[in-house]
Structures are given as structure tokens and as C-alpha cells.
Amino acid sequence: MAHKIYSVSELNKYINQIIKSDEILADLYIKGEISNFYHHNSGHMYFTIKDEKSAVKAVMFKSRNKNLKYDLKDGLEVTAHGSIGVYEPRGQYQFYVDDINPKGKGSLYLAYEQLKEKLEKEGLFAEEEKADIPVIPHKIGVVTSPTGAAIRDILSVVKRRFENVSLLIVPSLVQGDRAASQIVSAIKYLNKKEDIDLIIVSRGGGSIEQLWPFNEEKVARAIFESKIPVISGVGHETDFSISDFVADLRAPTPSAAAELAISNKVDLENKLDNLSNRLEKAAELKIKNRKDKLKSIAEKQVFRRPEKLFSDKIQKLDNLSLKLGWNIKKNFNEAQKKFNLLNSKLDSLSPLKTIKRGYSVLTDENNTTVKSKDEINRGDYIYNILKDGKIKSEVIDKEGENLE
Amino acid sequence: MSKKNEDIEFEKALEELEKIVEKLESGDLSLSESLDNFSDGVELIKYCRNELNKAEKKVETVLKDNEGEFGDIVPFDEEE
């Protein structure tokens, strides 16, 4: 009985059929370490998965690996899913990988780490690359979903702050496969406009898958290349995205992004209010000091009642002159009274009156009035003065007693 | 990236204002110097306030067509 002789092609094809008909080999998970990794120009990936003792060839076609977030590389521990088949031209069985995940943290986390490391090395996160956030942003471009939580938060901050600032919302998907390119084109669009001072890229919180666009390289590069300063406000406080690292300023949340965008302006307004108050107070104080001084001077007697300065003197003068007049008059009157009194006294005292009544005044030869008999002696001549002349007599004798 | 020119102008004005206020507060000035400084200060405050508030308060959005091309800018409907 003649044996059927197979060609090599037939053999490989046959073996391939048998392998493919095996349920286990058609839907298989393999764990191991990547080695001999090679990413061909065609886009297909070729590598070996090995453990301590064995290795198996593996291939991941472009159609399967294009959605791979992270870079496969030698040494990476993975779990791969796929099927076993034969590469007939070489008669070599291999593992056709349709999904491959790094051991442990998950592929997205790994991708994130890998991109972060790569961009950091390139200098995209360097401090000196960070632009200053404008002090007074007049118009802020906001790249986010027009229906998401982020825009609501941002709007409420701007409204609460009552700031004069305009927003231009550039609608963009913020999750899913198409989000990254939309974010990139939104950033580019804003860079073409001339009146945008600042860009906020933002979305609310979510899973790492939902936040993924902000961890994609093209978004990171668009932010880096933006001529307009960018604030990144993605997810919650604890979420750090690549966008956060590359942005000029990282905000922990969308609200915080809005706060930070206008915080300089708010600070300046407060500062200006403060300076304005101080200026007024200082000027008021200065003027008040002067006023007080002026007041205290003006309050001095001399200015308050200048007439007083003279009135006292005038009054004194008046008084004096009045007094003087009065005194003169009084003196005169008194003098006159005195004169009259004296006059009448003189009149009543005058011996003439008495003489007229028949009395005479006795004098000696020296015309001295004789008031006592002791003043004359016998033989002296005496004179009796009468109203119409005098009589000369000789003293014959003296006698009699004192009449007093 | 350097600061915008108007930011620099603004900061200069604010600095000058600060100096004026300090001078006035020191009380070393004569009355006429004080008044000159005060009116300079008032001018600077006016300028700064104007700079701070000259932006409009508008919330707008840009329309996008099916191909993702950007079109007209229209007021943003917040109730959407």
C-alpha cells in the first residue's frame, strides 16, 4: 500500500487546521515575560513570550495593537490573550495576540507612567517652560464638554466672583477615542484667535479610562506647544493627568482652574481697594491735621473776636475819659461847694458884720487884735475899730474876770 | 514666556500707587505735596480699576460642524 506523500505546505496546513480546531488553543491566555520585541514598519509587532524554561513566538498585528495605550518592551511581564496558529512558510507555531496587559497595575496606568517618563525626559514638564498666568485675563478659552460638570463649575465660579472676564467655550468631547483629537484641535483653534489670554482644559472627575484623553501624548504636546498659557483642571484633587504636568498651571478641579485663572485679578482688586482706602485715609488725615491746626489758630481770641483786641482798650479809654470828665465835674462842683461854704462861712465870720451891729475890734498900736487884758498894759494906746473908723484911747486901768 | 505689556504697565502703576500711599502715610509731606500726591494717586487708581474691569462679561461658544470644523461664535446657552 502506497503511502500518501505530502508536500511541506500540505503538512503545515494540516497541522494548522488541527491546532485551530482545538478549543483551548483557539482562546488562550498566556503569562510570561516579553523578549526580542520588534515593532515592524508595517505596524505589526513581533516578540517572544517566555518563562524560566520555555519561550513561544508571538505576533500582534497592527489592527490589534493600534489601540494599545502603552509601549510593549522587553522585560515586561504580561498576560496575553489570543490563539495559537502555524506560520506555514516556516512551519512554526506562534501565538497570535489580540490583547495584552501588563502584570499588576493595568495597561492604562503603565501607559501613563511610560508617557510621563518620556515627556519628562524631553523636558515638557520643566519649570522654565511654564508660562506666567496673565495677571488680568480678559478672555479665557475653555476647552471642555459644553454639557459636562466642568463647565458648570467654571461658570459658577466666574459668576460668584463677579469678575469682568469673558469666556469662549470650545466644545470638545472629553472622553472616548475621539476626545484627544478634539481637545487638540480646540487648543489649536484658540491659539489662532488673537483675543484669548488664557486657556483652561478641563473635565470633571471620572475613572482613569474616562480621564484618558488628558493622558494622551498628542494632548500633552498640544498643551506644550500652545502659545497661550494653559491651566489644566482635570478630575478630582487626587487625579494627576499628563495634561496637569505639561500645563503651565495645574488646578486640582475645574472650579479650582477657574479660581486660579482669576485669582491674580482678584488679588489685584483687593490690593487696589486696600491702596485706595489707604490713600483716602492718608489724605483725609493730612487735611484733618491741617484743619485742626487752622481751627485751633482761628479759635484764638484775636481771630475769633478781633474787636475784642481793641474794645478792652476802648472801654478802658471810655471809662477813663468818662471818669475824667466826671471827676473834673465833681472836683469842680466840690470846689464850688467848698467855695460857697467857705464864702458863706467867711461872710458869717467876718467881723464887719459884727461891727455893723455895734461891736468894735480892739487893736494895739501894731494893729494886732487884743483878745485879753493881759496883752496890754496901763498907759498903752489902744484902738477901737468901728464900721466907720477907729477911736484911739489910753488904758487907764484893767479889771474884771474871765468871761469864758 | 514673558508677561503681556499691559500687565507690566498695570503692575508699574500699582507699584507707583503703593509708593504714593506710603509717602502720604508717612506724613512728611507739605500740604501742597500731599494734595499733588493724592491727585496722582486718584489717577492711578482710576487707571488700574479701568484696566481691571475693561473686559466684557460674556460667555460664548463656537459652533462646530459635522466634520469638526469651527464656525461662528454665539452666546453660550447655559441652560442647555
Low-confidence stretches of chain A: none
Percent range of helical residues of chain A: 40-55%
- Low-confidence parts of chain B: none
Estimated share of beta-strand residues of chain B:
15-25%
How far apart lie the N and C ends of chain A? 224 Å
What is the number of E strands of chain A?
13
Annotation field: number of helices of chain A: 12
CATH class of the domain at 8-62 in chain B: Mainly Alpha
Termini separation of chain B (Å)? 37 Å
User: What's the rounded overall pLDDT mean of chain B?
Assistant: 82
| Biggest sheet overview of chain B | 2 strands, antiparallel
Individual helix count of chain B: 2
- What Rg of chain B do the Cα atoms give? 22 Å
- CATH second-level architecture of the domain at 8-62 in chain B: Orthogonal Bundle
Helices and strands of chain B, in N-to-C order?
Answer: HHEE
Given helix and strand content, the structural type of chain A is: alpha/beta
Supply Rg of chain A. Answer: 68 Å
Give a nutshell description of this structure:
Chain A is α/β, with parallel strands linked by helices and 404 residues long. Chain A contains 12 helices and 13 strands.
Mind sketching the topology for me?
The complex is a heterodimer of chains A (404) and B (80).
Chain A: H1 8-20, H2 23-26, E1 28-39, E2 45-50, E3 55-60, H3 62-65, E4 77-87, E5 92-102, H4 107-122, E6 139-144, H5 149-161, E7 166-171, H6 179-192, E8 198-203, H7 217-225, E9 230-234, H8 242-246, E10 249-251, H9 254-298, H10 301-304, H11 306-349, H12 351-356, E11 361-363, E12 381-386, E13 389-394
Parallel strand pairs in A: 3-5, 6-7, 6-8, 8-9, 9-10
Antiparallel strand pairs in A: 1-2, 1-4, 2-3, 4-5, 11-12, 12-13
Chain B: H1 5-26, H2 31-53, E1 59-64, E2 70-75
Antiparallel strand pairs in B: 1-2
